[in-house]
Specification:
This protein is an alpha/beta fold and 282 residues long. Helix content is 42%, strand content 21%.
Length: 282
């Protein structure tokens, strides 16, 4: 799996590198000879979905173009193994280590979290989608990692869809908001969040594209899904709100189109990946 536009994350990588070496790397300077070259292995220490192998490679090459990075896997599920061979100037490799690991561990954690959720409902045909609950500045990486883990992306930013949530409804009338949306943004899909049957009935009477059932109990969500399908089977149905691994299957069995899970990005645990010295060359 490859980034469509790698250029968009280069600025982020530059920020991350500067964060680590703004004042140099005195530890490596005093302990490693400038001429020393070494071989290192990038090792996956637990099963999971590797994501960001190209990002890690770019980080090492950014530190020093003389660093050779041989990826042994592509982004995807792996059991514990060596995932890359790295060789070149030892100082540069050690200076790049943490920055590269921060990227690939975080990204692989998001992918693995997504994979775990998807695996719980793989037989239902329901898709796992992300939210905008991403690390600030990292959204493209978090969204990419969700795809690598088998999930799908919700809107990338606010401008991709008209999404009318409770705080918007507190500021106006739903029918007026929907009509205004159709007039001002005719090419955008409209999604409405509903929290109860009364709101659902109002939403179903309007020309909208998606309905989000937010914080519904599974039994009520099941009834609501059937009602929406009967009224308009073209509406995309989303279930959201505090979904976790214990509850996701009960919601998937309501058979919405998608279930959005914020925790796959905002609470992902970094995957255990380390860099280990194999051999000093000179």
């Amino acid at each position: 799996m490859k980034f469509v536009n790698f250029e968009s994350i280069k600025k982020l990588i530059d920020i991350a590198i500067n964060e680590d070496i703004a004042h140099g790397d005195p530890s490596s300077e005093v302990s490693v000879k400038e001429s020393l070259k070494s071989n290192f292995d990038l090792i996956l220490k637990e099963s999971g979905v590797v994501s960001g192998i190209d990002v890690a490679k770019f980080v090492f090459k950014k530190f020093n173009s003389e660093i050779n990075f041989e990826a042994l896997v592509e982004d995807g599920f792996c059991n514990p193994k060596i995932i890359a061979h790295i060789n070149g100037p030892s100082r540069s490799i050690l200076s790049a280590e943490r920055t590269a690991l921060n990227f690939i561990q975080r990204m692989s954690g998001v992918s693995t979290s997504t994979h775990q959720y998807k695996k719980l409902i793989k037989d239902t045909g329901v898709d796992i989608v992300d939210t905008r609950k991403t690390v600030p500045g990292w959204r493209i990486l978090d969204k990419y990692s969700v795809l690598a883990g088998g999930g799908k992306n919700h809107r990338i930013d606010l401008g991709e869809m008209v999404m009318i949530k409770d705080n918007h409804l507190n500021s106006g009338n739903l029918e007026e908001i929907v009509n205004s949306s159709r007039s001002k943004f005719p090419n955008l899909k409209i999604e409405v969040e509903v929290e109860n049957d009364i709101q659902l009935e109002k939403a179903l009477a309007l020309p909208i594209d998606r309905i989000m059932l937010d914080n519904w109990e599974p039994e009520n969500a099941s009834v609501a899904v059937k009602k929406i399908r009967k009224c308009n089977n073209k509406i995309v149905i989303e279930i959201s709100g505090g979904i976790n691994k214990k509850t996701i299957r009960s919601y998937a069995l309501c058979f919405p189109d998608i279930i959005s899970v914020g925790s796959i990005t905002h609470s992902a645990k970094a995957l255990d990946i380390s860099l280990e010295l194999v051999k000093k060359n000179s």
